[in-house]
Amino acid sequence: MTKLKTAIEIRQLKKIHSIAGIGYWVYNYSTKNFWWSEVTHNILGYQPGGVTPSRETLKKHIHPEDLVFFEESLKQMQLQAMEIEFRFYKNGELRLGKITGEVYEKEDIIEEVLFQDITDIKIKEFEIAKAWNKALEAENLKNAFLANMSHELRTPLNSIIGFSELLETGNISENIPRYASSIKDSGLQLLKIIEDLLKVSMLESRTAKPVKRNFNLPNMMLEVKDLTNRLLKNSNKEHLNLNFQSTSSHLVIKSDQNKILGILKNLLHNAIKFTKEGTISCTYQIKNQAIEFSVSDTGKGIPIECQTSVFQRFRQADTNGLNNFGGTGLGLYISRLEIELLGGKIWIASEEKVGTTVKFSIPNVIDHELIRDLDPNPEIYNWENYTVLIAEDQFTNYKILEAYLQPTNVNIIWAKTGREAISASLQNPEINLILMDINMPHTNGLEATKLIKETRPNLTIIAQTAYALEGDREKSLKAGCSEHLSKPFNKTDLLLAMSKYLP
């Protein structure tokens, strides 16, 4: 019975070792006899019984650089239990092994060792550690972004609320223009943050699409230069030298002008932000059918280890916040996505304390079929013989539009809902143009536009709405609107759009 129990236990132990992939060997120091289990044969790449176990055979499998360590560990095992990891070969493939063993001295000196191939375990541990580090990095990045975003949002909000309270409560008539200017600047700062977040959402979801058309490149560069001069003034860095390329005024390319304009503005904003002294340069050159832009500065530079990561979202070279440069860490990420959307690429060359050059190229921009768009931009409009219906449910938005239009002497009718807009357009045939808000109670602006167009198909309707996502413009035009202005828009944009239909 005892022999049967022992046989069963041995069989179960062999099964456990086989399932766990744990080999076993016994070495008798007195007789020099060496025995390997079946799993040990398999770990070393042999069929059971396919080789005679010996120290020499075992050593042939140990990596040469680990052999001395392996032999010394076996000697130390005679003094105390040992657990070591080492490299070995199985059928020519390098693997990682682990032995756990000790030496017993009774009638003979016996070495008993458990032997395991831990290669796959280590790989999984590495992958888990890598995934954990990645998750930890993402968590830290998220926390840093939220903390930074809180700062970026609260700063302009503090200015808007503070100056608004001053305007509301005090006798400060002499300071009104200055306070109003601060409120406007802070509002634009908030708008930039919101627009960046919306851009990221659209670009990552692949819903954004480029709008390519022919445009005059030198004219666009003049606009970029004007923007840059304003950035220098607002940053109190008018002492920096500005180097802009000047070329033929007849160079026309075909691409998405608004996206290129935004990319250049963002790169120049960064150049100004990180430059205290020296020069900001912006140049371009045509290479075959592509255009390559270059923005250079003599600023603080970017550490080499950050020059790739700055094109990822929420990444900034100044991660500790000690230099107080601000920003959301989205600018270069958005630029990269928009450049890739146009089929181009962006790259960077930078040296700390020397400066940075960012270049990007966009292919297939040469198209000789020129589009000559009229660009009426008179400084003064006189529309005293015209009537405009403003369909807007928000009183403050209506008052802004009324203030914008007041210098033009145009006659204004106000409709607070979509139904009122429909009724007013039918009852007042003198209405020449409608500024139609989209999100209104009862009947929204798109539905109102469709109904108005059924009876007055030639009446000009301009959508003015806070809906600014990809496809919203197309919805407005499909409903019958002639133009689509995304809020917030400025006075110049509004008057320019209206001037196309009110001579």
Automatic annotation (TrEMBL):
<dbReference type="InterPro" id="IPR005467">
    <property type="entry name" value="His_kinase_dom"/>
</dbReference>
<dbReference type="InterPro" id="IPR013655">
    <property type="entry name" value="PAS_fold_3"/>
</dbReference>
<dbReference type="InterPro" id="IPR035965">
    <property type="entry name" value="PAS-like_dom_sf"/>
</dbReference>
<feature type="domain" description="Histidine kinase">
    <location>
        <begin position="148"/>
        <end position="366"/>
    </location>
</feature>
<dbReference type="InterPro" id="IPR011006">
    <property type="entry name" value="CheY-like_superfamily"/>
</dbReference>
<dbReference type="Pfam" id="PF02518">
    <property type="entry name" value="HATPase_c"/>
</dbReference>
<dbReference type="InterPro" id="IPR036097">
    <property type="entry name" value="HisK_dim/P_sf"/>
</dbReference>
<dbReference type="Pfam" id="PF08447">
    <property type="entry name" value="PAS_3"/>
</dbReference>
<protein>
    <recommendedName>
        <fullName>histidine kinase</fullName>
        <ecNumber>2.7.13.3</ecNumber>
    </recommendedName>
</protein>
<dbReference type="InterPro" id="IPR036890">
    <property type="entry name" value="HATPase_C_sf"/>
</dbReference>
<keyword id="KW-0597">Phosphoprotein</keyword>
<dbReference type="Pfam" id="PF00512">
    <property type="entry name" value="HisKA"/>
</dbReference>
<keyword id="KW-0418">Kinase</keyword>
<keyword id="KW-0808">Transferase</keyword>
<dbReference type="GO" id="GO:0016301">
    <property type="term" value="F:kinase activity"/>
</dbReference>
<dbReference type="InterPro" id="IPR003594">
    <property type="entry name" value="HATPase_dom"/>
</dbReference>
<feature type="modified residue" description="4-aspartylphosphate">
    <location>
        <position position="437"/>
    </location>
</feature>
<dbReference type="InterPro" id="IPR001789">
    <property type="entry name" value="Sig_transdc_resp-reg_receiver"/>
</dbReference>
<dbReference type="Pfam" id="PF00072">
    <property type="entry name" value="Response_reg"/>
</dbReference>
<feature type="domain" description="Response regulatory">
    <location>
        <begin position="387"/>
        <end position="502"/>
    </location>
</feature>
<keyword id="KW-0902">Two-component regulatory system</keyword>
<dbReference type="InterPro" id="IPR003661">
    <property type="entry name" value="HisK_dim/P_dom"/>
</dbReference>
<dbReference type="InterPro" id="IPR004358">
    <property type="entry name" value="Sig_transdc_His_kin-like_C"/>
</dbReference>
